[in-house]
Structures are given as structure tokens and as C-alpha cells.
Q: What sequence folds into this?
């Protein structure tokens, strides 16, 4: 249970670390994009602005300020990471600076533009560039903060303008159409309604983007969890079965009883061999054995139920029965023995002793379902069929063979119409009394 909790916590930590890395990359992309946008704006101002001299230098200087701060953010994020609060501080400075540049008059402008006139321009649309920058960060909170900063900076500039004595705001509707038109065309007129519409739209877009980013993070987390679940399934099931399970809402189904093919394998003399080996050598041997046998189980579409020391239990026809479960079980056993022969060849070249393996195969009814507690559960196949396969494997030592199968298993092979050559070499060994059972069982054995 504690191991499961640690595994879940570890997965959560890795996911948060991945989000942090992507946030950092996103902030760097945002800073680079912002710098490119500023360059484009500078070029646009150079082509469209009629002002020259100091007035034009002021425009270029303010644009250069944003370029320098953008490059500074790119350097900071690339060298020191996100520094948690730095993006929020930069966004506040950017919003205040952008509001000031867009609403405050150029001090070198000789035309004497009224203070209220910039409110008639589409300057507030530049605030959306801040939202674009924040969206790259993949941080919902930063998007909300950007919305508040942009709206707050624009509101400060608007209040500064409308509180000036020469500024005219919306006249009452009772003033008449002619009076309203006169007011509207006055260069000192500032529309409160226009300001309200701009800010409502800006705040709604920032909130919507924040929800979108949050939803995206949730989808990424769910996808990562699904991949982790699929990875866990891949430890026990063949890739083909994993694809089937991943497509189901209830992958393993309810608790049920169904026929399965069971294979129990065990290394002969492993305990004696392990006593003469260092711990690292014992673990390397087990990993080599388990890895090769696991490949054969999955190659033949089996389910790897568990490793038990130097033994392993595999089932066929799980989670769904198939038309050739017994055939696949015997084919897997043959593949395991061939893999062991090939491995012994490698060991012989390294001067290591050969290994022997015993396999017990049985076919019959078993109970499938989740076992364990509410906090720690595992899918398992249990029942007498599993126990018989284990006893048949133990019988390989008494009969001095590598493979022992039950009569029920051979009967299942015949029903499936298996290739007769697959069972070649299996000879009847009569009725055998298995440990823990009262009645003898007909068995066949071979190497």
C-alpha cells in the first residue's frame, strides 16, 4: 500500500516537473515572440507615423524599452528558470508601461494632441498582445493576472484622462441627438461606454483563455495518467491485449469464472546456485531469466500474472477466452525452452553453468477478478487450476523432465485442433498423485 502511494506520488511529482519545464519553455517562447512583435511594431510605426525628430525618437524609444525588457526576460528564463514571481512582476511592468505609452501624450509632440484623443484610437487592442504572451506560459493564474494588470493599467490611464478639467464624458441621453453629436466630435470627449466595452471584452477573453489553459493542463494530466495506466497494463499483458483493454471503459470486467490455460515455470536448482553468487549476480540472473520468459509470454498473447522469486505464472485466455488458449500456452512453453537453450549457449561462452527449467501446464476453470484491499488492488486469476499447474511444475523434478501437462490440457488441445507436432515428445506417465490432492491425475511429460 505504501509502495503504491509512493508510486502515485512519484508520478504526480514527475507530472508537475514536466509542467514546470513546459512553463519555462513557454515563457521563453513568449519572450521571444513578444520581442519579434515589438520589432514588427517598430517597423510599422516607422512607416505610418508622420512625426519626426524628437517626437519620433520618443516613439522608437518606448518601443525599444519593450524590446529590451523582452530580451531580458528571455535571458532570465533561459539562465535561471521562471523564478516563480518574476513573470507576474514583468507582466505588471509591461501592462503599466503599455498603458502609459498608449494613453499619455508624447512630450515632444508639437501638435498639441488633446489628452482624451488617444482613447478614440484602437490602442486597447495592443493589450491582447500581453494575453498572447501569457498564454504561452501554460499558467492559468498568469493569464488571469495579465487580464487584471491590463485592465488595471488601462483604467488608471482612463481615470487620469477623464478627471482632467477639460475632458468631456458621455452626455445624458436627454440632451438630444444634436447635443450628443456635438459632444462626440469634441476632441476632448472620452467615451465611458467605449471604455466599459473594451475592458469587459478584455477581461472575458483573459478569463476564457485561463479556463482553456486549465482545461488543456487537465487533458494533459489525464493523458499522462492514461499512458501510465497503459504502461502498468503492459507489464502484465501482451501489447495486443493492452490495446484492447485501453479501449474499454471497464477494462478487466466483473469478477467471473472462465476456462484458462495456465503455465507455471521455475528454474531448477536456483536456490543452490544463488548461495554461491553475489547479490548483484543473483539479481542479474533473475532479470535475465524473467526478461526472456516475459518476451515469450507476450509474444504468444499471454498474461503475465506474477513473478515469484525465480518462478513465474502466466495465463492464456485472460481477460477474454480465445479459440486457441491451450495451443498458445503450449507454444509459449516451447518458446520458453528454446529461449533457455539459446541463453545457455551465451552463458557457456561466458564460462557460466547451464540452467534448467521446469514447466507445468494445465487447463480448466478459474476465477478472475480484483483482489486486495480498497487501497491496494490487483487483477488476479485464482482457483484450483492455478494450484494444479504449480504442482505439475513440481512434478518435473520427480520425473526428470522439463515439461509436464495434464490430461485436461491435452483434451483442450484436441478440441482446438492444434497442430499435432506441437505436442510431439509428450509421453504418457500414468496417473500421478499431486501434492495436496486426494485423487491421481493422468499426466504427460517431455523435454
A:
Amino acid at each position: 500500500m505504501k509502495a503504491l502511494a509512493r508510486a502515485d506520488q512519484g508520478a504526480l511529482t514527475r507530472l508537475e516537473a514536466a509542467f514546470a519545464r513546459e512553463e519555462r519553455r513557454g515563457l521563453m517562447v513568449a519572450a521571444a515572440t513578444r520581442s519579434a512583435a515589438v520589432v514588427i511594431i517598430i517597423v510599422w510605426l516607422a512607416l505610418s507615423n508622420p512625426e519626426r525628430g524628437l517626437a519620433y525618437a520618443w516613439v522608437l524609444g518606448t518601443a525599444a524599452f519593450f524590446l529590451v525588457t523582452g530580451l531580458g526576460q528571455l535571458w532570465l528564463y533561459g539562465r535561471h528558470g521562471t523564478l516563480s514571481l518574476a513573470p507576474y512582476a514583468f507582466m505588471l511592468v509591461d501592462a503599466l508601461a503599455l498603458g502609459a505609452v498608449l494613453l499619455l501624450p508624447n512630450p515632444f509632440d508639437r501638435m498639441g494632441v488633446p489628452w482624451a484623443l488617444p482613447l478614440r484610437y484602437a490602442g486597447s487592442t495592443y493589450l491582447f498582445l500581453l494575453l498572447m504572451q501569457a498564454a504561452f506560459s501554460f499558467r492559468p493564474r498568469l493569464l488571469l493576472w495579465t487580464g487584471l494588470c491590463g485592465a488595471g493599467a488601462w483604467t488608471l490611464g482612463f481615470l487620469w484622462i477623464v478627471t482632467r478639467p477639460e475632458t468631456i464624458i458621455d452626455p445624458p441621453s436627454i440632451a438630444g441627438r444634436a447635443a450628443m453629436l456635438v459632444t462626440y466630435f469634441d476632441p476632448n470627449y472620452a467615451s465611458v461606454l467605449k471604455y466599459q466595452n473594451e475592458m469587459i471584452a478584455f477581461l472575458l477573453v483573459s478569463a476564457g483563455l485561463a479556463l482553456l489553459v486549465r482545461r488543456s493542463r487537465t487533458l494533459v494530466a489525464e493523458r499522462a495518467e492514461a499512458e501510465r495506466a497503459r504502461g502498468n497494463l503492459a507489464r502484465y499483458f501482451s501489447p495486443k491485449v493492452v490495446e484492447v483493454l485501453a479501449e474499454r471503459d471497464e477494462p478487466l470486467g466483473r469478477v467471473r469464472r472462465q476456462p484458462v490455460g495456465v503455465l507455471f515455470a521455475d528454474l531448477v536448482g536456483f536456490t543452490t546456485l544463488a548461495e554461491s553468487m553475489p547479490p548483484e549476480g543473483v539479481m542479474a540472473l533473475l532479470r535475465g531469466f524473467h526478461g526472456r520468459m516475459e518476451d515469450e509470454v507476450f509474444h504468444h498473447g499471454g498474461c503475465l500474472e506474477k513473478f515469484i522469486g525465480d518462478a513465474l505464472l502466466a495465463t492464456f485466455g485472460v481477460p477474454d477466452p480465445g479459440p486457441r488458449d491451450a495451443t498458445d500456452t503450449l507454444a509459449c512453453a516451447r518458446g520458453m525452452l528454446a529461449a533457455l537453450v539459446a541463453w545457455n549457449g551465451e552463458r557457456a561462452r561466458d564460462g557460466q553453468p547451464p540452467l534448467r527449467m521446469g514447466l507445468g501446464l494445465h487447463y480448466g476453470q478459474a476465477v478472475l477478478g480484483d483482489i486486495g484491499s480498497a487501497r491496494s488492488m490487483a487483477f488476479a486469476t485464482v482457483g484450483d487450476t492455478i494450484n494444479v499447474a504449480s504442482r505439475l511444475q513440481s512434478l518435473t523434478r520427480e520425473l526428470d523432465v522439463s515439461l509436464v501437462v495434464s490430461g485436461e490440457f491435452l483434451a483442450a488441445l484436441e478440441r482446438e485442433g492444434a497442430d499435432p507436432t506441437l505436442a510431439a515428445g509428450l509421453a504418457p506417465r500414468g496417473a500421478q498423485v499431486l501434492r495436496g490432492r486426494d485423487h491421481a491425475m493422468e499426466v504427460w511429460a517431455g523435454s
